[in-house]
Amino acid sequence: MRKIILRGIFYDLFIEILLNRTKERIARFIAQNNLFPALDICCGTGKQCQLLEKRRQGTIGLDLDLKMLKYASSKYPQITFVCADAAHIPFRNESFKAVIISYSLHDKNPEMRIKIIQEAKRLLTPEGKIVFLDFENPWNRLSGLGSAFTWLIERTAGGEHYKNNRQFLKNGGLQGIIRSHGLHTVERHNIPLGNSRIVIAKSEDIF
Ligand SMILES: C[S@@+](CC[C@H](N)C(=O)[O-])C[C@H]1O[C@@H](n2cnc3c(N)ncnc32)[C@H](O)[C@@H]1O
Fold this sequence. Notes:
The protein has a single domain, classed as Rossmann fold (3-Layer(aba) Sandwich), CATH 3.40.50.
């Protein structure tokens, strides 16, 4: 337990601080468009859930890592966290108006990515939106600089995570995901220094 709390604290101190503005932006978009209830798939330390919950009630965080969820829940006891596999999410079809998938595709293998997106589509109401935040291939000099920084972080994570990220970028990053899953981009916001993008997408599929 102590080790996982340290991991949570480390993530909060060094990663969440860098991501805070971007996650605020996502929360603002969801609140302004009244996209509640919302589900944050692979929610990690729960920060995105908290930024949403402070605007309006109705966010659930889901992650497979029970210890990380206990850490999230200790910080945000008012939020519901569910421990489950993102490939088999225990909610009915069309349960959410927003599904967030933030930095949780690049680290997964291709089969897992497909399952997560299929689940996200299944869970969305017809007017619902998927909010992606993840890495892209660099598109200008600033994002090229960002890519060097994010490469270093990903290299430190190592192993399967690093290998999956290389494959994710080789397949076109977030844009590759949008293309290959028949999703329709509604809005996108560049984060050059993070070599990342927020992509808000709609699914054309009906379940
Ligand atoms: C890189 S972190 C991203 C955390 C958070 N979304 C963020 O933006 O900071 C990836 C998360 O995916 C979770 N995860 C990995 N495999 C999973 C699975 N099969 N189902 C649900 N969560 C999973 C991990 O526990 C971890 O919290």
